[in-house]
Amino acid sequence: MPRVVLVTGVSRDLGARFARTLAAEGGYEVIGVDVLPPRHDLGAVSFVRADIRNPIIAKVIASRQVDTVVHMAMVVTAGSAGGRSAMKEINVIGTMQLLAACQKSETFEKLVVQSSVSVYGASPRDPAKFSEEMSPRNSPRTGFGKDSIEIEAYVRGLARRRPDVAVSTLRLANLMGAGVDSHVTRYLSLPVVPRVMGFDARLQFLHPTDAVRALLWATRDEIPGTYNVAAADIVTLTQAIRMMGRPSLPVPQVAAPSVAGLIRQARLGDFSSDMVDALTYGRAMATDRFARATAEIDGVGFTPSYSSRECVQEFVGVSRPGLLDPVQVSAALEKIEGALSVRPRAEAEHG
């Protein structure tokens, strides 16, 4: 008898990719749920138009005898949800209703939740890489980060109330690659990219293909717990802007919120104060826990197919060309950096 898997958020790209891939494997009856009709091909997935904020989701779970729920309905930006209040309703209230329905189900055995690196916030006091047991040095105050923290709290509550259920929470790095639409990709695609003067944020990415692979691992196998999932390497903001071929505009830190507000007003991006912090200080995650957990299953474990740098390169390849040639920009900056490093030595010799 095939396992019955309910996947939320299938009208969005990552949810559609995951549900379609799982259904194509065979051995699974996959039910895709979303409030909007799917924009992408779902293949063998059975689509049900339903709002997880409505208690009717409990009837769907009960009538289809769902044993596994993969929750991917979290909206990243207020703009895509129709405002901050609507975003919170979908992210937090929707999760509460979904988990309440799961708790009552007699057939429910497994929950997989797509969480985010944003739970760690961003501050100048952050460690080089966050491990799963670490708390944010500066807790997110708004937006997706705050919602993700609340969602994880509700998920832990369900795990306590239903110890018979295997619960896996995957904290995914920012997605990057061809076709990805996010606050980071919109920011890097600006004709002129503003950046906070004196800072060079550390950026860590995950390719959508690797995100799907990680979610498949957690769905197929028993991997309870919370895990960071990202490419191991780091790309600095300066490097990413160079690769995009965009000129950057240094902005004093005190003026960064105002600049973010102007970008929102111009509808070029949706940047909360937490997003500004992330693009100022950056953040990164340690990923060895998930690698070890999956290696115990097949002896090899999960390793991302794309590095953070390769994710950016793929996105650059399908993006509108920047005003500058990235190769020429890198070469010019290397010459400047080289001249600056040699100049003090020459002055000392002639002093």
Estimated structural class: alpha/beta
- So what's the overall shape? globular
Fraction of residues in β-strands: 15-25%
Taking the sheet with the most strands, its summary is: 7 strands, parallel
List the total number of helices. Answer: 13
Helix content: 40-55%
Query: What is the gyration radius calculated from CA atoms?
Result: 22 Å
Query: What spatial order of strands do you see in the largest sheet?
Result: 3-2-1-4-5-6-11
Tell me the distance between the termini. 84 Å
Pfam family, one: Epimerase
Protein name: SDR family oxidoreductase
Domain NAD-dependent epimerase/dehydratase: 5-230
Describe this structure as you would to a colleague.
It is a single chain. Strands 3-2-1-4-5-6-11 form a 7-stranded parallel β-sheet, with helices on both faces. α1 crosses α7 (208-220) and α4 (84-104) packs parallel to α5 (143-161). The chain has helices at 13-25, 56-63, 78-81, 84-104, 143-161, 183-188, 208-220, 237-244, 256-265, 273-281, 288-298, 308-318, 326-350, and strands spanning 3-8, 28-34, 46-49, 68-71, 110-116, 166-172, 174-175, 193-196, 202-203, 205-206, 225-229, 235-236, 248-251. Helix content is 45%, strand content 16%. It has 13 helices and 13 strands. β5 (110-116), α5 (143-161) and β6 (166-172) form a beta-alpha-beta unit. It is α/β, with parallel strands linked by helices. It comes from Microlunatus ginsengisoli. This is SDR family oxidoreductase. Residues 5-230 form the NAD-dependent epimerase/dehydratase domain.
